[in-house]
Structures are given as C-alpha cells and as structure tokens.
Amino acid sequence: MGDGTSAATTGAKQSLWTRSFIVIWLINFLISVVFLLLMIVMSKIATDRFDVSPAVAGLSASIFVIGAFVTRPFLGKRIHDFGQTKILYVGVVFSLVFTVAYFVVNSVALLLLVRFLHGAAHGTAALAIGTIVAGVVPREQYGEGIGYFTLGQTLSTAIGPFVGLLLLQHGGFNPIIITCSVTSAIIVLLLPLLGVKDLELTAEQAAETKGFKLTNYIEPKAVPISLALMVTFVAYSSVSSFLALYSEAIGLTTAAGAFFIVYAVVIFITRPPIGRRFDQKGENSVMYAAVLVFAVSLAILAVADHAAVLLVAAAVMGLGLGAIQACGRALTAKVTPLHRMGQANSTFYIFGDTGLGLGPLLCGFLIPLTGYRGMYGVMAVVAALSLVPYHTLHGRRAGRQKGGAGP
After folding, report:
1. pLDDT per residue as tens digits for the range 255-273
2. Of 85, 216, 220, 282, which is most buried, counting CB atoms within 10 Å of its CB?
3. What are phi and psi of 145, to 5 degrees?
C-alpha cells in the first residue's frame, strides 16, 4: 500500500486516516511510551541503586538524549539514500536490543553506556518516523494532521510516566524493563503493516546533498522554530527528569502519578482545535500565548504544596506545552519542501535533543543551590525566554500571514 508518500504531493483531496497513518501513529505512540517511562524513573533508579549525586542522576536521564543527538546529523542527510523505512527498522530493532540490555546493568558506567546506545537507536527510529509522517499527512492538512499525530505522544506522556511511577513504587527495576521490552517487541511486529514507499529524489534534489556542507545536515527554514523549542525543552526536562524526586521530597508521590494523566487529558481535549487554529489563523495566534501559559505552569509547580496545586500545574502545562509542541511540529513540516524533510526533522530533533540533554544537567547543578522549588522557578523564566528566539527569528516576520511562511 503506497498511500503514505504520495499524500502530500497529489492535488486531489486526501484521506488523513489511512492505514499508514494509523500504523505510524501507533509506532510513534509506543516508542514515546518507552522513552518517557524510562525517563521519568531513571534519575531515581540511579540514585537508589547506585547512590549517585543529583548531577549524575540527571546525566543518567540526559545521556539517552545525547545518544539520540549524535545520530541526527548523519541520518538527516542520508535518510533518502538508505530509505526511511529501512532506517525505521534498524532503529526499532536496536531499541528492543538495548531495552533488554538494561537487565545486565550492574554499575553506573554500564547504565550510562546502555542509556547512550538506547538513545542512539531511539533517535534513529524517531527521525525516520518524523520523515514518514510528513509524507503520509496531506500537505493542506498539516496543522490538523500533525496535531492528531502528536496526540499519540500526548497519550504517551500520560501512560509512560504513570506506568513508570506505578511500577517504581510497587514493582521496581525489573518489572519496568520487562514492560518496556514487551512494548518494544510489539513495535517490531507493527513494522510490516506500515506499507509506505520511500520517497525517490529527482536528480536535482539528490545533487543538493552531495559534498560536505551545513545544509546537508540542517534545514535553515526549520532553525527558528527549532531554536525556540530547544529553550522550551530545557525547561520541560525539569519535569520529565526530576518530578519523581521532587514529588517525593514534598510528600506528593501519589499525586505525581496523576500529574501526567491530567496533563495528557488537557492536551487531548485542546489539541484538535489548536491544530485547526494553526491552519486558519497562523502560528503566532498559538505560540505567544502558549509559551506564557507553559511558563506559568512551571511557576505553579514551584510553589505546589498540595495535590490539587500540583494537578493544576499539570493542567496548565498541558494547555501551554501541548500547543507549543503541536505548533512546532506542524510549522517545521509546513515550511519545508518534502524532499528536505529528513534534514528538517534532523534539525528539529538536534535542537530538541540539545534542550532535553542540557536541561537535566543544568537542573542537577541547580538543585543543590536552589532546591527543587527554586529550580522550577528558574525553569519558568527559561520557558518564557523561548519567546525571544521565536519572535526575533520567525514571529515578527510571520505577522498576520495565514499559517506563516509557506514552503
């Protein structure tokens, strides 16, 4: 079934909910579940099992993202040479291998090595997924289509951390790895059902990637939004990496399990209308307000002293960060020609991985100085500062143009 790669290139009205879209949605959802399940528990596991400092605990989380980071530039350039489906197969199979490898971890050094290699495999799969879905979604429906696609990641932000914290409290390390291994095996079984054809480049398009030049690895049109998202992800990493430890420190461990459920429910409700607003009114109508709402959510989290306050922070974060992520992915796809989508996704993930990788390290150094509450206060300011690169590099030019810059 070749409906995937042609959807964005034909003039006829295309169906969004094809088999290829549904299967890539499921693959993306399950990969995100594994990633977020491990991310939320890893700093606590490193602390409990190996008695490490907050900085090393943060590294155990962020080194996964560093592993993903190193694969992006090379694969972004070569994804159409190898074929995005083959790259997806490689990434998914090795993700399963390295998930099972957690069973043999018996030292901090080995944990960091496995985390790094698992991150590299995850990054390979995620880059291929981003390229495939850009061809599956009809181009005139990018805002809505990418919005629905990222709902899978939204659900994973609820299910992954919730299951991770539940297993951490009642099962421990081995049940966590068993769950992730079974999930990774299911992803492998879904691959033959995908049914998309690799994009074939014209001679002129292929010639663009010859030789060594920066544009072989980075898509300039994707840099402005990617830079703004990098700053946002620095702030978000404080939640994905340290919420388990923070909730334990303030006595709200049970509420922390519900945090991501509330977060995801809010995104699930608001994502479709946000996608339609992006298509109809343009990215600026979403981004400015969303960034400020996200910053407010971190400020609320910093002062949380009751379960209700923690869950209010989750709801506000779902509204703000959910809109930022949906707008960012849709805008990256919208401004980029289809044959440059590999480089665009590489750019998006390079900057995003940089934020997610630097964030836990920064937070790990801040916590001894400011405590958890002070760290979240600092991250609220960092989140608000993401408006600076967005407005300077893109927002002020997009102005009132419908949908911003075109491809």
Report:
1. 887 898 898 889 888 877 8
2. 282
3. -65, -50
| 331, two tokens | 């805008």
Q: What is the pTM of this model?
A: 0.69
DSSP string, 267-288: HHHHHHHHHHHHHHH-THHHHH
SS3 of 325-358: the string is HHHHHHHHHHCCCHHHHHHHHHHHHHHHHHHHHH
Domain count, the chain: 1
The CATH code of the domain that includes 268 is 1.20.1250.20
Q: Which two tokens stand for residue 47?
A: 């602390």
Helix/strand/coil for 249 = helix
Q: Which helix (H) or strand (E) holds 37?
A: helix 19-50
- The string of DSSP codes covering 54-66 is HHHHHHHHHHHHH
Radius of gyration of the chain (CA): 20
Higher-scoring residue by pLDDT: 137, 370: 370
Structure token pair of residue 325: 């992520």
Tokens found for residue 360: 């836990």
Cα gap 106→273, rounded to integer Å: 47
Residue 407 in any domain: the answer is no
The whole domain housing 117 covers 3-200+213-398
Phi and psi of 336, rounded to 5°?
-115, 130
In a domain, 208, yes or no: no
pLDDT in tens, 283-304: 888 889 999 999 999 999 999 9
| Contact (CB, 8 A) for 390 and 294 | no
- Write the CA distances from 121 to 14, 54, 58, 92, 273, integer angstroms: 32, 26, 20, 7, 34
Q: List C-alpha distances in Å: 323 to 183, 207, 269, 283, 329.
A: 27, 37, 11, 10, 10
Structure tokens at 72: 């992006």
